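Tutorial handout. Part one gives the primary structure; part two gives the three-dimensional structure as tokens.
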Amino acid sequence: MADQTDNLLYEGKAKRVFTTDDAKVLLHTYKDDATAFNAKKRGSWEGKGKTNATMSAALFSYLEANGVPTHFIEQVDDTTIKTKYLTMLPVEIVVRNLATGSIKRMLDFEEGRKFKAPIVELCYKDDSLDDPLVNWYHLRELGVSDEDLEFCEELGLKVNSVLAPFFDERGIILVDFKIEVGKDESGQAMLADEISPDTCRFWDKETNEKLDKDRFRNDMGGVEDAYAEMLRRVTAS
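Part two.
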């Protein structure tokens, strides 16, 4: 299973990916390790892997039920999900509803500015380059087709349209998020990676309290409680 090192396919900053007896299926085991600023800052806390795996499983299932294709198959245990084997595009899709982080600095926006419409950004997925913000021209040169780029942007907006009201009902503002896309052996593109406080910014709707990895990035404290609270709100019946 997911603890068999011989089956380790890939180890990233926040999870390990394992092969299975089925060449079309992978296991993703989420770690308690945390990184920020492309692993320039490191830490860990108990329960982080459980939060990210369980939230991702719940949200992938919800998205599937609302017409979004994903790589998710099932949750195996507290920290492990089973997924389809995909060939990943070298693209990160960022969708922003409010201004914070890099866009605030880039365009000198005030913190929390609500955008007239969601803003979609495409980044080149390469840790050594700090995942730079790029445009279609750059990504075409890197071999990504216009069809795939269109899918990426439409997927980002679709995920946003499904999840923003989901979180709003739970007292959470979906400030922004990052997703990735892969293709199965038939060439079908779909949502991949994870959806968690590692990859999204969540603010409490009443207090604007941050309930995501920004608490770790910015040494705000209370990160374990924030992740636990997000897991509670997502999984509460």
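Part three, for discussion. The mean pLDDT is 95. The chain has two domains: 5-84, 87-221.
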